[in-house]
Hints:
Mean pLDDT of chain C: 93
CATH superfamily of chain C: Response regulator
Oligomer: heterotrimer
CATH class of chain C: Alpha Beta
Number of strands of chain B: 7
Distance between the termini of chain B: 8 Å
Radius of gyration of chain B: 18 Å
Largest sheet of chain C: 5 strands, parallel
Radius of gyration of chain C: 13 Å
Amino acid sequence: MRALVIDDSRAMRRIVTGILTNLGYEVRDAGHGREALDVLDEGWVPDLATIDWNMPVMDGLQFVSAVRSNPAWRRMTMMMVTSESEHTQIVRALAAGAHEYMIKPFTADAFRDKLALLGLLPQEVAL
Amino acid sequence: MSTTDTGQRRRGSDSRPVITDLMDEDTILAVAGDAWISLVGEDEVLVPIPGEMPGDVLSSWVDVVGPWTGSVVLTTGRATAEALSRALLRESAPEVLDDEDVEDAFGEIANVVGGSIKAALPGPSGLSLPQVGHSPLVRNPADVCRVEVLWRGEPLTISVQGALPPLPVTH
Amino acid sequence: MKILIADDSRVMRQIVIRTLRQAGYDDHDIVEAEDGAEALAKVGSESPDLILSDWNMPNMTGIECLEALRAQGSSVPFGFVTSEGSAEMREKAANAGALFLIAKPFTEDTFKEHLDGVIA
Lengths: 127, 171, 120
């Protein structure tokens, strides 16, 4: 399975990439929504995108809306990764088409549980 | 694919509650009834009978984010939303209500109803500021608890609706 | 007495004022604020004897306002009038130094219950 980690913080990208790599994902990352769209435009469409809310150039909400407007990207599950203070924005992102959210800080176990719920654990880990 | 489920993966967060697991119509009616008495007026009652919604409707809602995530949405005809706003403002209601008055008053009713709904749900949860406009879409028809009432003979709905899409069906 | 009412909803400020009157507290000066930041500023400029504040407001929430007041050394009596009356919120409010928390929806009796002894 493939995942695209979208966050303007290098530290957050590393943390999430680490968790997903350990779960068996092939991971790429992007520093903001525009960069992430470029990856999708290349034809590298992941099973999962983890999306920060506040980012320069193109924020998480704009990215979610852009993805929803392209039917070719419908299969991708979009998970917002947001801090507690942004919790009132979560429903807006979900309404725009995101599928799930995680509130920072989170543990690797919490992340894994949420992916299990979504049927998004790579098979060898799921078994 | 056949796998042996050892149960090891089945932890607390392995399921996601839908609103009907947590709340019923009677709770919504009770909460809304209290809000109406306090805000709209002591003799103001909500009658749990469905009515036919007019074409021009307005919604107000607050979002709840927590173990259950979604919105508490009030929807009624624009004229009824205005009548509600007048009832809240009472003697200080202006001759002509502007949009801001209606957004404020109708939004505040959603805030009070939503705050009580939040308190009846498992927490901790956060509550958003009220919003007024077109109702948020229902993402998961199984995650909705909705009541239809009449206020002064006019229809109004209160929908407690999840913001998350259904989980994929696992085999 | 001077009472400062902080709520981002104008309608709710009016309802609070009306309920104060109905509960028999009708002989007081009322000052209004639209959010926590304005309430904080008006504590300085108006020196109210009591603050009745909403919790959820833009710019600065009620609890942030209360924390800022206490950090500045102000001990002005402070009570919440809010749509969130969970045990968790009540505990947070009490820990920050609030006298009481009135949950919306409220009645004039709720006001009397909490304000008798607070409002002279």
